[in-house]
């Protein structure tokens, strides 16, 4: 199996797990979003530490961390990645808890095309007329929603931009996927601990001896595993292909929002999604054609 094939499998599985996360967060929506985010960071950190110890990679982790700290650009990139992904987590948790699963879904549908633009600007990737058509169709969809509802779909756009930036930043960090996630959690751990202490001091914490808290303990595993898979995939395949695979997660979110949580899906929503789906179909077709050409070259 080639490195690119491994990357596709890793990334696709990460998006599948992210796609079913709304169901998990809705199980504990009695806990406020910031407290969930803080625990998500803490338990992800704990899980990653345990995982590295079990895998016997503590020595390698120390060596790679020392090398990372010698490279100021990569160290800063990893710190920024931790902040960006924490923001993305928090906004997503808030959106799900406040019945905006469809907005979250839209954001992650936009994200692949946002990744394409960032790939073009920062990674010097170039695209065909068909791919540009896909980007324009998605932009029309977002513009239509903005005009039809009278306000910018800021939840969708912020989710799309933050996760696309995270993927771009991680391309600049050359370190084992497991180690980068631990360090990202470490970067935001002080804020999480301070936040929980503050919530406790004003008697706003809901964490304790209850079912929701028990469910919340698994947030570390459910956060770390897809991130490991995503990072492993992102280092093996182009950013544009990462964007293509991203549609798996929003499709699962869309299904949950409409059929499980009965969120309103109006005609305006349908038109917006139709433009974006059309763009993704066109882009998917162009990537498939490129993949066929590459395979022919390899087998000839």
TrEMBL record:
Protein keywords: Cell membrane, Membrane, Transmembrane, Transmembrane helix, Transport
Superkingdom of the source species: Bacteria
Compartments (UniProt record): Cell membrane
Residues that span the membrane, as ranges: 7-25, 37-55, 75-94, 106-123, 130-147, 153-169, 181-199, 211-232, 239-261, 267-286
Domain EamA: residue ranges: 6-146, 157-284
The keyword rRNA-binding is annotated on this UniProt entry: no
Pfam families: EamA
InterPro entries: EamA_dom, EmrE-like, RarD
Signal peptide: none
Membrane topology label: Multi-pass membrane protein
A Gene Ontology term for the protein's cellular component: plasma membrane
PANTHER family: ACYL-MALONYL CONDENSING ENZYME-RELATED, SOLUTE CARRIER FAMILY 35 MEMBER G2-RELATED
Family the entry assigns: Belongs to the EamA transporter family.
NCBIfam families found in the cross-reference section: rarD
Protein name: EamA family transporter RarD
Native organism: Macrococcus lamae
